[in-house]
Specification:
Elements lengths: L1 H27 L9 E2 L2 E2 L5 H14 L1 E6 L2 E7 L5 E3 L1 H11 L10 E2 L5 E3 L1 H16 L9 E4 L5 E4 L9 H13 L4 E3 L14 H13 L4 E5 L2 E5 L1 H7 E4 L2 E4 L1 H15 L6 E4 L5 E4 L6 E3 L1 H14 L3 E3 L3 E3 L13 E5 L4 E6 L2 E9 L10 E4 L4 E9 L5 E11 L6 E4 L11 H4 L5 E3 L4 H7 L5 E4 L1
Parallel strand pairs: 1-6, 3-10, 11-18, 20-28, 26-27
Antiparallel strand pairs: 1-2, 3-4, 5-7, 8-9, 11-12, 13-14, 15-16, 17-19, 20-21, 21-22, 22-27, 23-28, 24-25, 25-26
Helix pairs in contact: 2-3, 8-9
């Protein structure tokens, strides 16, 4: 009987002990992972969720990633270097909730997909610095291009594939590999590709154009002169850079300005044979012509790109240009201040001679070669007298010749014309003409006619 009681007591104690152990085990692992539990390949058994998260984060920070180009290691970094982040908390919380510590199950493996992220600014800064430093010792890719072959023309130079990394695309590629769990990242297909290859249509068209340009020459007819634009000169202006045909516009402008300086008449004095037979030097006025550099530059570039030989007159600005080589020509007005005379020539024939009154000394009629730029009837001329008072003089005919208010007009206030009268009764600078003669002058002198005053 006693033995039976002892046995009962022993069994009770044993079962009670098991119950205590069971309750203790369940209570202990209600806040810890069961023994043998692995999460993302890391053992977290007997760790609290917080302890497991710290362990996983430490492992993440210490994970090393290798960048390889074929067999060569070109760089390495850790998760910490690029600010790699994983939201472990949600997975760990879910696993802790799902485990049942009361079933004495002592092992579980969690292979959930990692929700990885980056400190974008840190990752890009670190990786771009690493890759740019590596690129310094690597060969740059080169686009296909066109090069000059001495003075003979141009030829195609094929593209060159280098081995520098395309930093932006490589960084994206690295991030994709990290997300896939790949710690050995192969970069040998991530090189910068040439942007322009030999079969590029635009490049081929430019080569064709340049080879046509290589045969271009031309000439300018300026007055009765010819200026040759040689093929070698044309080639010195043309080049191929940045995947386009370029012109040395500075050199072209210099050339065109030199031609203009050589032949133009604007702002230049002229040797003029007067009606009396004397040869005088007449200073520059507003009349004259020059090569329009910008307009001609545009046309010259187009002529060159057309690939054909050209022969023509350059673009001209101003007045008086003609093919005879003189700009005054044989139709003009001649005024002699000394003799107080005006002559009108049309097509080389003298059609009118008259006495005039020019500017009072001190208000001299300006010497030079001018041109009639307007014709008006019944105008009022306004200005200031020597004493500062204003005047308003009605005239029947008004033909301005410069940009200061000087011109030809009738003057009914003048009692006589010619001789020395101008020395005491001269105009404010205009050329006064008898009212009886001025209608003929107005009729004979067309717009644009040069007026030579000496």
């Amino acid at each position: 009987m006693k033995k039976a009681n002892k046995l009962k007591i022993g069994v009770f104690v044993f079962l009670f002990s098991l119950l205590v152990v069971y309750i203790g085990f369940g209570s202990y692992y209600s806040s810890r992972f069961l023994p043998g539990t692995t999460v993302y390949g890391q053992s977290v058994g007997q760790l609290t969720k917080e302890q497991a998260e710290v362990k996983l984060i430490n492992r993440l920070n210490e994970t090393t990633y290798m960048l390889r180009d074929g067999d060569k290691v070109v760089g390495q970094f850790t998760g910490k270097d690029i600010g790699l982040k994983v939201d472990y908390n949600s997975d760990l919380t879910a696993r802790m909730t799902q485990q049942n510590p009361w079933l004495f199950k002592t092992s579980q493996t969690v292979n959930a997909t990692q929700n990885q992220g980056f400190d974008e600014a840190s990752a890009k800064s670190y990786l771009s610095n690493l890759l740019n430093k590596e690129n310094q010792s690597r060969t740059e890719s080169k686009d296909a291009s066109i090069q000059r072959t001495g003075n003979q023309g141009f030829q195609l130079v094929s593209e060159t594939q280098g081995n520098q990394f395309n930093v932006d695309s490589v960084m994206s590629y690295i991030f994709e590999n990290i997300q896939s769990g790949n710690q050995n990242i192969q970069l040998n297909n991530q090189y910068i590709k040439p942007a322009v290859t030999s079969d590029n249509a635009d490049l081929q068209n430019n080569l064709k154009t340049l080879n046509n340009v290589a045969n271009v020459s031309g000439s300018y007819t300026i007055g009765n002169n010819t200026e040759v634009v040689s093929n070698s000169l044309v080639l010195s202006w043309v080049d191929f850079k940045d995947n386009k045909i370029n012109f040395d516009e500075t050199a072209m402008r210099t050339y065109l300005r030199s031609l203009s300086q050589k032949y133009s008449t604007v702002n230049k004095s002229r040797i003029f044979k007067t009606t009396s037979g004397a040869v005088v030097t007449v200073p520059a006025g507003t009349y004259g012509w020059s090569i329009n550099t910008e307009s001609e530059l545009s046309q010259l570039k187009q002529d060159i790109l057309n690939g054909n030989k050209f022969s023509r007159q350059p673009k001209i600005s101003g007045s008086g240009y003609n093919t005879s080589g003189t700009d005054i020509g044989d139709t003009y007005v001649e005024v002699s201040v000394a003799s107080q005379k005006l002559w009108i020539y049309k097509q080389g024939q003298l059609v009118l001679t008259t006495d005039v009154v020019t500017g009072l000394p001190g208000q001299d009629t300006p010497r030079g070669v001018w041109a009639v730029w307007s014709k008006q009837q019944n105008a009022v001329l306004r200005g200031l007298n020597n004493d500062g008072t204003s005047y308003a003089s009605p005239v029947n005919y008004w033909m301005p010749i410069d940009n200061t208010g000087v011109g030809l007009h009738d003057a009914n206030w003048q009692p006589k014309f010619g001789g020395t009268w101008y020395q005491t009764h001269g105009s404010h600078g205009c050329i006064n003409i008898s009212p009886s003669v001025m209608p003929k002058v107005y009729a004979d002198v067309a717009m644009g006619t040069p007026v030579v005053i000496y």
